[in-house]
Amino acid sequence: MPLLENGQIKEDNWQVAIEGEALPSGDVLVPLARLSEGLGRNNDGRLGVVLNAGDSVEELRSALPRLSSIQVTFPIFRDGRPFTQARALREHLHFEGEIRAGGHILPDQYEFLLRCGVNSVVVPEGVDAAVWQKAHETFSVAYQPSVLNEQPEGFAFRRKLL
Amino acid sequence: MDRRNNRRDAEGSSVITANRLLDGRIVWLAADGQWSPHIRNARVYSNVEIEDALKEQTASAQDNELVGVYGVQVSLSPTGPVPVTSRECIRAGGPSVHPDFTPEWQERPAVSPA
Amino acid sequence: MSHAPHSSLPVGHYAYDEVDRTFLKQRVAQFRDQVERRISGALTEEEFKPLRLMNGLYLQLHAYMLRVAIPYGVLNSGQMRTLAQIAQRYDRDYGHFTTRQNIQFNWIKLEDTPDILALLADADMHALQTSGNCIRNVTADQFAGAAADEVIDPRIHAEILRQWSTLHPEFTFLPRKFKIAISGSPQDRVAARFHDIGLMARKDENGRAVFEVYVGGGLGRTPIVGVKLRDDLPEEDLIAYLEAILRVYNEFGRRDNIYKARIKILVQALGVQEFRNRVNAEFVAMDRARYRLDEKIVAAIQARFGVPDFDPAGQAAEKLIQQRKADRAFDFWVRTNTHAHKQPGYVSVTISCKPAGGIPGDVTSAQMNLLADLADQLSFGELRITHLQNVVLGHVRQDKLYALWQTLDQNGLGTANVGFISDIVACPGLDYCALANARSIPIAQKLSERFASPELQREIGPLRLNISGCINACGHHHAGHIGILGVDKRGEEAFQITLGGAADQDTVSIGQIIGAAMSEDETVDAIARIIDTYLARRTAGEQFIDTCRRLGTAPFKDAAYAPA
User: pLDDT for B53-105, tens place per residue?
Assistant: First the structure.
């Protein structure tokens, strides 16, 4: 499926590990259970991890310097755990690589994802990027700080978004 | 959807209800296929046949601008179907604490904005 | 003598600036777009539901219901007039004050809702987060900024929490709803220990706020009294610590069962110590500087609250004494419906929205407009909604009380029953609510008529009677000295009675069910016999709840189920 990043739809060049099959060469995303297998590859491309909503990001701590991408996954859009995972990856683990969000996500959640440190979203084929961009541009102010460290807007915890 | 909305006996009769998407008001599926605000117009199904009818109506709910299609068990009276539960009687007749707010209640002419 | 605010700032609540107004307009535009996408079918009902709920829009039994936020229960006269306008133009000419200090309208159309939200935004109001699995409207003491026993005005911190929780990126899809209450008096008037988080503010030796933090309380299906997590949380860590609690809840709270998803279940499952350890681990690890609640922030928010410009007391108190002597009915109303003010010559007035036979918490648009006028004339344009579904004028000069009472009495708002058995808290129940099992309003009406006599109510004394139409407990039945819970007996309505609940911080307790459910009329009679038992068995000066605690429920149960 394509990726939405910075308002653009682009092709996703990462492969996702297929259960029961050997890891392919090239850039590959593995589930947490196959992390050590992924780490054991011989410079075969970049490595990423797909987290389930119930996984603890702490388990990635030692492997983090070798990870280029981490996907947080929404089993359903109402399950908000991936927001906490993404924010923790940035705030606690200081992860600077790509955080992508996958699974069932509404455009209406896009700005929340960005403010929790997600930078790309796995979207269905044929999605209208304009709807997501519009969601990103809906608000010019937020009422609390985020890992993006936006500029203050006036007083208190208000932050400029646009 | 609340489980109570689908609680029906194996036997007996039911009618089909929903809320209109745009204004939320309660409607009942009538014999002519239209949705009426009045339960007295509702088509009565035997509970044997209602599941198929519900499936069909649920599938077309978006096209008909309806939400929450479900079946309501009724008994039959000379004035039409009467729901067997208090809940559905209140849905059919309006809140008991405002006797004027029946399904016949009409909005007063719109007040022009001040 | 004018009581108009002396500055342009509204008294008692935060004054919006252009940034806040722009935000609300953007929020309205966003919802307008979401409604269009729903109608076009681009959003399914399942996807749309959480989005509309986070704008306060429910689909209830007969129509959509819109719940409008009244942050910490405070609004100004202009805002009250806007609510009256909505009632008149978009609803059936009335509104219902809720147990979260909000107001809800029962006959709203989805297609009108964006316009209603725009009207609210023009009055600096919104319906943000009045529903949904997010941080809900923060509630506060209805006598904030006025009560003689107050240490800190909790509304400043309630506003800070309101802003911080508004469209919080991480906490908008929590396992379940999340309710915070804050009190700034040693006397808990917010039921702090029945909240997901309850905050009791006091001052440290330097005059800065510190907070007792209670967590994991709540009513509903599993009533639990909150436990103390911190005794002395410094003000500057307030946001960071709440972030830590919410992070732990968002990560570990159950999502497999809606009835076990509240934070209270997580606290019980982990145990208080383990829960505290996880919160502390998060708190220690987090970027505390980012969330530090600096004194400057508190000052900046406080600076946007208008304060009343009180007149000298003069002879106000003496005049009131004379008027009370001259009119016994007035004297009784003053005794029940006023609360001591810190400013000499002033009191806070609780206006009862519970007339005998009335619908608890319902007011007509005409009454809303009257309340707005009275607020302008007598209380610096400020009004408060209480979590017990009444209205408070916070700052009324004592020599204005008599005229106020007469006006209220002529308009169905003069009932002298605050804190008495007919000051009933009731949810909308099965007359309106899609979740309810039984109607709450008709039984409330029968009870308030049964105990309408002022003499009888005075004889009975302080008594909290709360009614919920289902186990979700929006009517807080477990917190009532007497509680009534509506149940569904094979499609028929029935009612259980609970006894011994109380929401006060130090003596908090959960009401216990005394026996099998009864019909509406049987329940009303049973409660009358419970009251008779209390009157017969009490010691001198003993209040109902104390007799209940002393004797246990057995004698009351015997009376309730005695053959007629």
Answer: 999 999 999 999 999 999 999 999 999 999 999 999 999 999 999 999 988 88
- C39–B24 C-beta distance less than 8 A: no
Residues A138, C30: C-beta atoms closer than 8 Å:
yes
List, in sequence order, the alpha helices (H) in C259-396. Answer: 263-270, 272-285, 288-291, 295-302, 316-326, 328-337, 365-378
Span between the terminal Cα atoms of chain A, in Å: 29
Residues of B in contact with C92 (CB under 8 A): 98, 101, 105
Tell me which amino acid residue C531 is: I
**C349 and C343 Cβ atoms separated by less than 8 Å:** no
Which of C126, C173, C177 to mutate to test binding with chain A, by most A CBs within 10 Å of its CB? C173
Distance from CA of A37 to the nearest CA of C (A): 27
> Is residue C488 less than 8 Å (CB to CB) from chain B?
yes
* Residues β-bridged to residue C483: C466, C498
User: At C61, is the secondary structure helix, strand, or coil?
Assistant: coil
pLDDT band at B48 (very low <50, low <70, confident <90, very high): very high
Mean pLDDT of chain C: 96
Q: What is the CATH number of the domain that holds A125?
A: 3.20.20
Tokens of B93: 């007749």
Beta-bridge mates of residue A70: A49, A99
Which tens digits make up the pLDDT trace of A85-140? 999 999 999 999 999 999 999 999 999 999 999 999 999 999 999 999 999 999 99
The number of distinct structural domains making up chain A is: 1
Check: CB of residue C103 under 8 Å from CB of residue C87: no
Q: Determine the Cα–Cα distance for residues C42 and C37; give it in Å rounded to an integer.
A: 5
Contacts of B111 (CB under 8 A, 6+ apart): C88, C89
Domains along the sequence of chain C with CATH = 18-122 (3.90.480.20), 147-302 (3.30.413.10), 316-410 (3.90.480.20), 425-560 (3.30.413.10)
